[in-house]
Amino acid sequence: QVQLRESGPGLVKPSQTLSLTCTVSGGSITANSYYWNWIRHAPGKQVEWMGAITANGSAYYNPSLKSRTSISRDTSKNQFSLQLSSVTPEDTAAYYCARESGPRSRTMRGDYTNIDHWGKGALVTVSS
């Protein structure tokens, strides 16, 4: 059974960098036809796809966040990570890692129908 678990600080100060790690068990992040996503949900706002990393390590991002976002991975630990720089209180949200299956990713279009596993989410508050 594939499981994803987010970890990282729950409180980040404005202008700092938010860092989260998703630890995957029960499946390899290098397996073909899977995409490893970061998605967030801020209070009172719609769910927002942030970016993803593919099985071969290619990362791609939501254009609205691209300048502040970096997604990387550590295959030896079967983990992938999110960094969001220059955070503001607007970045306060529940952050989720998720696995998408299929030949082509749909999450960049806001289509989450092919996501088959979600982490439980990590609440991150941006506040001084």
Tell me what you see in this structure.
Helices cover 0% and strands 50% of the residues. With 128 residues, the protein is mainly beta.
Show the helix and strand layout.
Blueprint: E1 3-7, E2 11-12, E3 18-25, E4 34-41, E5 47-54, E6 59-61, E7 69-74, E8 79-84, E9 93-101, E10 115-118, E11 122-126
Parallel strand pairs: 2-11
Antiparallel strand pairs: 1-3, 3-8, 4-5, 4-9, 5-6, 7-8, 9-10, 9-11
How would you summarize what this structure contains?
It is globular and about 40 Å long. 0% of the residues lie in helices and 50% in strands.
Low-confidence stretches: none
| Distance, first to last CA | 39 Å
Tally of helical segments: 0
- Fraction of residues in H or I helices: under 10%
> Beta-strand level of the residues, as a percent range?
over 45%
What composes the largest sheet?
7 strands, mixed
Reading the helices and strands in chain order gives EEEEEEEEEEE
Structural class: mainly beta
How many extended strands? 11
Cα radius of gyration in angstroms = 14 Å
3D shape: globular
Could you name the key traits of this structure?
0% helix; 50% strand; 11 strands; 7-stranded mixed β-sheet; 128 residues
